[in-house]
Amino acid sequence: MARIVVIGAGLGAMATAARLAVAGHRVTVYERGETYGGSVGRFERAGFAFDTGPDLLHLPAVYRDVFVKTGKEPLESCVAMAQADPASRHFFPDGTAVSLPNASRAGVVSALEEALGSGLGERWGEFMNRARDAWDRTRRPLLEEPLRADRQALGRDPYPSVRQKRLLRRDRQAATLAEVAARELADPRLAALLESYALAYGLDPRDAPASAAVLPYLEQTFGSWYVAGGTRELARALHERCLARRVEFVFGAEVASVVEKDGRAAGVELADGTLVEAASVVAAVPPERLSALLGGRDAYGTPPSDEPGPVRADLPVRAGRVTVFLALKGGREAGAVHRSVVHPAHREFELREIFDELGLVESVGDDLSPTVFVSRPDDPALRPDDGHEAVVLTAAAPVHAAYDWSRPDLATLWADRMVSAAATAIPGLADRILWREVRTPRDTRAVTGAAGGAVPPPSLAGRSARFLAPSNSTALPGLYAAGGWAHPGGGLAHAGMSGALVAGLIVEGDGFRGSR
């Protein structure tokens, strides 16, 4: 039985800790904050409660597996879950709206055909068939296996080319998600629908590989699930499972460095100078923080870049998130849905502002609202009574150098834009607001330590492997990486899967070939 140190207490870290404890190891988690969950937190005020992280769970099988493998009580005995149906309602700038049913690809096709007409539902269905092919080709290497040493094996995009019906025309291979939208969907509303899945994960659709088509495929195939009481309840249940497996948590304990001995990780040193010996160290932290724990060295032995700052120029431009918590008077109206997406009139300026380092765009058009994701769970646990409602608005936001989130006016401006857009989905919104609270990438950075307050996207194949998260194994033997910033990337399901991969590597060694 070996002693293992885990740095961080996010969901990926706790999934790792629980699995290792069941395997017989003594696991201690050191978290610099005062609670567990990482970005999956909770904000409470005056009887209202809000999730600070994702509000819906996709691929719940990942966490079902964690609970099955770590104890007798299954996931559904620890939290109550239900499918959100419809999965989402989309509002387009031309006034069109469409509700997409949960976990029903045929139902989505029918809904799009009824709302948009002109064969657009069938066109989306054909696109989803190609997305299924991309998922089938990459599901195991991208989600269930440790990252291959030859990353370029996943550098080729698995999204299939579109067969050309006309003679002498070559099949067309889209390189980016935006190209898929323009060439294959060829309708501004379908393009907005597709690209919103990329924005939800902080990805630039103009740069993200065509294989990002798997993101809507996952939702429309496996469904969107709501955890009663909010996603924070999932974090609570996983924390309790860790405690039941005798995992020790030390909060308010910042790890200053990874201790090395005889060429391998041998423990950690805390900020107060305490030395903790360990046979293995698992770091569930952003790459910049992992490098700092190694005295500034790259954890993967990558040669230093000539580019200044912590982010290499060959990596995709990162994005963060602005979140607005709204406390509303008046109950939820009949027919309201859990999740709405309000699409902007000027998405091209949204993308430029977030990803092109232009700074604040103020002079173009009369509506510069971003794509706004509106979360309205019908959950009594989140509101004082049925005469009130707790609503969360989120939008992808820039974290590049042209934006200074320490300016209070930026937070106010973004919140105003988002509330204005959300009024499309929430009747009478302006008159219902009792108060609002705004969180920007600056707040995210304070919680997670990620450069600029960026959020980790899921790993994607294609684009010369630029969209792959770092491996779970590092260049330093005995040091492993877990959580959203390591393979297989960000998102609740992906971060949870990192726990299975890291635990497998530690328990079975380099011969581990993936989760079964």
Task: Give a quick set of tags describing it.
single chain; 516 residues; alpha/beta; seven-stranded mixed sheet; five-stranded parallel sheet; 19 strands; globular
Provide structural commentary.
The protein has 516 residues and is of the alpha/beta class. The chain is built from 15 helices and 19 strands. It has a seven-stranded mixed sheet with strand order 7-6-15-16-17-14-18, sandwiched between helices. It has a five-stranded parallel sheet with strand order 9-2-1-13-19, covered by helices on one side. A three-stranded antiparallel sheet has the order 10-11-12, with no helix packed on it. The longest helix has 25 residues, at 120-144. The radius of gyration is 22 Å and the shape is globular.
Based on CA atoms alone, the radius of gyration comes out at 22 Å
Find the structural class using helix and strand composition.
alpha/beta
So how many helices?
A: 15
Largest sheet features: 7 strands, mixed
- What separation lies between the terminal Cα atoms? 24 Å
- What percentage of the residues does DSSP assign to strands (E)? 15-25%
- The rough form would be described as globular
Strand order in space, largest sheet? 7-6-15-16-17-14-18
Helix content: 25-40%
Report low-confidence residues grouped into runs of 5 or more.
304-312
Number of strands: 19
Average pLDDT, all residues: 93
